[in-house]
Amino acid sequence: MPTGATGRRPRACTRAALLEAALAAFAEHGFHATTIERICERAGYTRGAYYSNFAGKEELFLALFDEHSERTVRRLAAAIDALAPEECTLARLAELAAAIEPDERDWYLVTTEFTLHAIRDPQAAWVLARHDARLRAEIARGVTLMLHRAGRELTVDADRFARLLIALREGGLAQSYVEPEALPPGTLEREFLPPLLAASTRPRDGAQPNRSGSDAVI
């Protein structure tokens, strides 16, 4: 693809190509080591095309963050919507939450490095926290709806519970990517999410217990 072809392609395609190139470059070389020139070269666009979409690397990362978050939430919501009523057990819901996509390792590398950057930079931390809050709100909403289908409700604050789920997932992935044979991705969620959900929820008033599965807590 010729460099500078932005005039012949929709703006959305330009943005998508830059995001794809940035994710690959960040995962391969690191957030700080990746230059805007490298991203442009990988995507096949000029710096002018880049700056017409993003003010800098931080803004580009946050766009990647929102895109990844939306895709993850949509995928989980679709999987839950596809469940038959008798499949809505805590064990089955935990299994869906434990699913790790093959490309998750690249995103984990990128987001971990940016999180470390944000810890050192108060302004970056403030901005990242705003995006984190939006993701947590979606997770909290999804968990509430998911449990509603299972005939249960949280007994703890939904936002705090979402924080715990994120900590379990990210902490588990850190160990899994270091020791993939000893701890395959998703193992901790599959093992500990069902009892965690059982301990943090109760039957909803008027809900009929789901007796069709092997999950005795519903």
UniProtKB/TrEMBL annotation:
Coiled coil (UniProt feature): none
Residue ranges of every copy of the HTH tetR-type domain listed in the record: 12-72
Segments of the chain annotated as binding DNA: 35-54
Pfam families cross-referenced by the UniProt entry: TetR_N
Keyword match DNA-binding: yes
Alphabetized GO MF terms: DNA-binding transcription factor activity; transcription cis-regulatory region binding
Assigned keywords, A-Z: DNA-binding
PROSITE patterns: HTH_TETR_2
Keyword DNA-binding applies: yes
Name of the featured protein: TetR-family regulatory protein
